[in-house]
Amino acid sequence: MFCDECGADDCLAAGTSYEYVAKKAKERGLDLPYSDDMGPEQRSEGLNHLVELAQQGNEIAKDLIKESMILVGEVVGQLANSLDIRQIVCGGPQWEQVKDFAEEGMSEAIRRRFALRQVHDIETRTSVLGSKIGAIGGACAVMDASLSPKATALLLR
User: Fold this and answer.
1) Integer angstrom CA distances of residue 50 from 32, 57, 63, 72, 132
2) Which residues, other chains included, contact 78 with Cβ-Cβ below 8 Å and sequence gap of 6+?
3) How far is CA 22 from the centre of its chain?
4) Is 67's pLDDT higher than 90?
5) Residue 57: left if φ>0, alpha if ψ -120 to 50, beta else—which one?
6) Do the beta carbons of residue 46 and residue 34 sit within 8 Å?
């Protein structure tokens, strides 16, 4: 999964891209539509199709999603080391559909990469906000920027 952008052979973007997943699917006998001129909508449709196949019990589709989420877990585990956090909250538009067959592998990858496990545990859980997590997070960022007091405004002159 060599990345053309950064040159790394373990790049998260390259390893979870639709192009990479479609190539792996084809190698394993699962035909996901792919062409170089596909736009974001077609890639999204292809990933949605992959999720549908996994939900219907297709083992190849399940394995592809698990492998992608393990890559995500490895990166998240490394970030958890840098930030020394205790809890990872998963969510987003597709998380509810894939968590049953992706959560365990991803959580194991996070724990494996988390170097501070001797100091404290790290918990992985699912957000109660479901697929609305991005919209709520964006709204909170806007409200925080608009309504929170600014440190410079609190200075005595």
Assistant:
1) 8, 11, 11, 17, 22
2) 113
3) 17
4) yes
5) left
6) yes
